[in-house]
Design brief:
39% helix; alpha/beta; 4-stranded parallel beta sheet; ABC_Transporter_SBP; 12 helices; Rossmann fold; 5-stranded parallel beta sheet
Amino acid sequence: MKQVQDQTGNFVSIPFPSQRVISLVPSLTELLFDLGLTDEVVGITKFCVHPEEWFRSKTRIGGTKQVNLPLIESLKPDLVIASKEENIKEQVEAVQQFCPVYCSDISNLQESYEVIEHLGFLTDRIDKANQLINNIQNIFKGLSVCSKPIRAAYLIWQEPYMTVGGDTFISHMMELAGFENVFVTEQRYPVLTIEELMKRDVEAVLFSSEPFPFKQKHLDAFKQTWLRQSSIGQLPVCKIVDGELFSWYGSRTLYATDYFIKLRESLFLSDELTA
C-alpha cells in the first residue's frame, strides 16, 4: 500500500502500484498518458479529449459534472482522480464510499507540480513525473517577464459573462503570459457586465475556447454592445485564446510558453492596442 495526502487534505491509500485508474479530470487524463500509463486507465470522462486514442477507446463514465456512479463502481477502480474545482463534491464523496479518491485543487504552477509528483508516485512513474516537472520548470524559466503587462480580462462564459479571479490557475497563467488580470482582487469566477468591464480600463479581452466555445460571432456582438454603450471608452482588443493552454495543468503546460509568447506579440502589434 502507498499513501499520500491530496490537495484537499485527505489521505489516500491505494494498492501499489495502482492498476485500475479512473480520471474525472481531462487535464490529468492527459498527464496519465504522458506518464506512460496504458491499460491501467480504465475510465475517463467525455471531456477527456487528449490523447485522442484514449478518447476513442477508453470507457467514458459521463461528464465532469455528472458522472455515472454505477458504471464507475462496475469498473472496480483502485484509484479515482478528481478535482475540487471541476467535479461535484457530493459525487466525489459518493465515489469515496467504494474507492480511494485523489482530489486536486490547483491555483498555480507549483501546485500543479505537486499533483504531477503525487500521481507519479501512486502509479509507480515517479521518475517520469520528476522529469516532466523539470521540463516544465525549464520551459517557464525561459519565459521573459513582461515589463508592461497588458491589462486584460479573461472570459470563460457568456449569458452571463463570467471571468476569473486572482485565486485561479488561469489568473496565474495570465500573469506568466504577460497579462495583468483586471479582476485579480476578486475570487473564483465573478459574473460581470460589459458596463462593469468598461470601468476597469481594460486593454484586451481574452475569450476562452472553453468551457464556453467562444466564436467570432460572439466577439462581434461584444464589440457592438461596447461601442453602443460607450461614447468615449476605447474598444479593447478582443481575441479568442486557447483555453487548454491557460487552464489545463499537468503535461499540457509544456506547450503553453510558446503560445503565450506568440499571443503577447500579436497583441502588442495590434493597431487597436498601440494606437
